[in-house]
């Protein structure tokens, strides 16, 4: 499902090893997508420390499991990914990236957005950019999206 997509070529800018074996919390209300994403992350050498389907569950899990990174769907049943992260970031720092079936704009500096469907390579690049961007506190990494159908 995800692996068939094309994405813009983005060169990773994180320090060597910055995205090696992270503990990642997935926030995705679609069970199949959550499972597929978990498999992709495991294949990339990361540990999935939970999959949450709701805004409240995601916030609770973030403080309970203390992940290295959160991958958050923009639209959740009964909430939003932005709502999840606003609640968490009001209490602690948390590297994260968003994923969505629609292009996301107006994201805060350092936040990466993956446009579904995405490939394993785009996922790993997004993770690297998220971790590097969070540690740098600098400008927002490029938005990872599918090219238009005409490309």
Task: Tell me what you see in this structure.
α1 links the parallel β1 and β2. The chain has four helices and seven strands, in the order βαβαβββαββα. It has helices at residues 31-43, 55-65, 81-89, 120-136, and strands at 23-27, 47-52, 69-73, 75-76, 79-80, 96-100, 112-115.
List the helices and strands and how they pair.
Blueprint: E1 23-27, H1 31-43, E2 47-52, H2 55-65, E3 69-73, E4 75-76, E5 79-80, H3 81-89, E6 96-100, E7 112-115, H4 120-136
Parallel strand pairs: 1-2, 1-3, 3-6, 6-7
Antiparallel strand pairs: 4-5
Helix pairs in contact: 2-3
CATH H-level superfamily title: Response regulator
Number of strands: 7
CATH-defined architecture: 3-Layer(aba) Sandwich
Q: Any idea of the CATH topology?
A: Rossmann fold
Classify the helix fraction into a percent range. 25-40%
- The quaternary organization reads as single chain
Low-confidence residue ranges: 1-18, 138-151
Label the overall shape.
Answer: globular
Q: What is the C-level CATH assignment?
A: Alpha Beta
Q: How much of the sequence is in beta strands?
A: 15-25%
- Count of all domains: 1
Q: Counting H and I runs of at least 4 residues, what is the number of helices? A: 4
- The computed structural class is alpha/beta
Q: Strand order, biggest sheet?
A: 2-1-3-6-7
N→C terminal distance? 20 Å
Q: Main sheet? A: 5 strands, parallel
Overall pLDDT? 79
Q: What order do the SSEs take from the amino end to the carboxyl end, as H and E? A: EHEHEEEHEEH
Radius of gyration: 14 Å
